[in-house]
Design goal:
Keywords: Repeat. The chain is mainly alpha-helical. It has ten helices and no strands. α2 runs parallel beside α4 and α4 runs parallel beside α6.
């Protein structure tokens, strides 16, 4: 019912309604499901110039990643992932699953995705997004795709900073005392 959705969307905008991230993502999802990925990407680009409450979130990006990867537009999906990271939006389990499935099914020869996720972890570390890097590494471990030794070294360096060690000790003492 894309035609009807477009009509409602146009009326909504004409009435002065400002769509939020959920409205944008819903419309983008409908367009992608109808095979109108380029139109969905145009709507995503419009979204970037709206108010903060309508900025794309990880759900929006995952909808677009899924659509692009289904079309075997892997390089476009990676470009969009780079844009997502540059905008400060962190990937999640769904993001990882989309790319892992695509790398395993659409590339010749297939890849397990370890290298891809490892590079993602390193990039997140470089951007000082340690929590997001930990989450991706955790996903890697759950999928039996352990990070490279050099990536483990980054984790150890991050975890073994004196301030972080003291915080961990303080938390342990607080848990014992309470």
């Amino acid at each position: 019912m894309v035609t009807e959705a477009r009509t409602v969307w146009t009326r909504m905008l004409g009435a002065g309604c400002k769509p939020d991230v959920v409205a944008f993502s819903s419309m983008i999802n409908g367009l992608c499901n109808a095979g109108l990925v380029d139109e969905a990407l145009k709507l995503y680009n419009e979204m970037l110039f709206k108010e903060p409450y309508s900025q794309p979130d990880v759900v929006t990006y995952n909808i677009l990643f899924n659509a692009l990867c289904k079309q075997s537009s892997i390089s476009r999906a990676v470009d969009l992932l780079n844009n997502m990271l540059d905008r400060g939006c962190d990937p999640d389990l769904v993001t990882c699953n989309i790319f892992l499935k695509t790398l395993g099914e659409k590339l010749d020869p297939p890849q397990d995705g370890r290298e891809f996720l490892d590079e993602l972890v390193i990039r997140l570390f470089k951007q000082q997004r340690v929590s997001a890097a930990y989450k991706i590494a955790e996903i890697m471990m759950q999928k039996f795709l352990p990070p490279k030794p050099s990536t483990w070294e980054r984790f150890v360096q991050e975890l073994c900073q004196p301030k972080k060690i003291q915080e961990a000790i303080d938390r342990c003492w607080n848990n014992l005392c309470c």
